[in-house]
Amino acid sequence: MPIRPEMRTRYPRDWPQISHRIRFERAGGRCECDGRCGRRHGSRCTAVNGEPHPATGTRVVLSVAHLDDIPEHCDDDNLAAMCAPCHLAYDAGLHAVTAARTRAARLIAPGQTELFPTPGGPQ
Ligand SMILES: [Zn+2]
Ligand SMILES: [Zn+2]
Predict the structure, then answer these.
(1) In angstroms, what CA-CA distances link 44 with 9, 41, 81, 86?
(2) Measured on CA atoms in the order 110, 105, 13, 60, is the torsion positive or negative?
(3) Torsion of the alpha carbons at 61, 30, 27 and 7, rounded to the nearest 10
(4) CA distance linking residue 82 with residue 67, whole number of Å
(5) pLDDT-derived band of residue 42, with 50, 70 and 90 as boundaries?
(6) Which of 27, 49, 79, 108 is 20 to 30 A (C-alpha) from 34?
(7) What phi, psi does 68 have (nearest 5°)?
């Protein structure tokens, strides 16, 4: 249950294509976070999809963050490919701390590394 049903309906039908394009064509498979998440990783995060995360050592699976936290808002400049630590930290800054904790605990189940897996499986 990676995306809550009420959230899935808010994503555009071509979200898998949008997500893939942002992560791999625009971002080149690398986290696009420029520090806006609040983590101290320099000008741009060095996490690369499929490789060990520079901070956590776990395999990086990029997801696409909505910078304004509105799923319908899928303009390129509202989207950023992010590694899980950046995405979580960024979201935590958008919400109250307790809400972010709840969200993180619900979204990241044991063994799950992707925040918003593409419907139909990893690409
Ligand atoms: Zn990152
Ligand atoms: Zn970051």
Answers:
(1) 32, 7, 12, 11
(2) negative
(3) 30
(4) 11
(5) confident
(6) 108
(7) -100, 5
Given a contact cutoff of 8 angstroms between Cβ atoms, the answer to whether 2 and 112 are in contact is yes
CA dist 19 and 81 (Å) reads: 8
Structure tokens at 18: 């949008």
pTM: 0.71
d(CA 8, CA 34) in angstroms, rounded, equals 27
Q: What percent of the chain has pLDDT over 90?
A: 61
Dist. CA 122 → ligand 2 center (Å) = 22
Type of residue numbered 11: Y
Neighbours of ion ligand 2 (CB under 5 A): 33, 37, 39, 45, 86
Task: Give me ligand 2 centre to Cα 14, in Å.
Answer: 26
**Closest to 93 measured CA to CA, from 8, 29, 35, 28:** 35
